[in-house]
Amino acid sequence: MSTMDSVLERVRRVDPIREIDLHQWSASAEARQLFDHVVDSNVVDRPQRHRARWLAGGAVVVTGALATAAAASGVLGGPAPDPIRAHLAALDKGLPQDLRLNPDVEHAMAVASTASGVLYAADLKDGGYCIEIATEGDVPRGAACVTAAQLGDRSIEVTAPIPSGPAAALLVGGRINDEQVERVVVRYSDGTSNDVVLGLARYWLVEVPDSVRAVALTEGVQITGIDADGLDVSTLAVPPLRDEDPDGTAMDGLQPVFVSTISTGDDLTLVLGVEGSVNAAGATTLELDYPDGTTADIGLAPDGSYRFMIPPDRQSDFASSSGKLVAREANGQIVASVSFSSVANSQRTP
Amino acid sequence: MKSAVESTTDRVRRRAQMDVLFTSHAADVYAFALRRTSPSAAQDIVSETFLVAWRRFDSVPEAPRPWLLGVARRVLANQRRADGRQIALRTRLGSSDPNISELDAADLAEPDAPAGDSAVLTVLAALTPSEREAITLVAWDGLSAEEAAIVLGCSRAAFYVRVHRARRRLAAALGTAIDPSNEQEADLS
Question: Is the confidence metric ipTM above 0.85 for this complex?
Answer without folding.
Answer: no
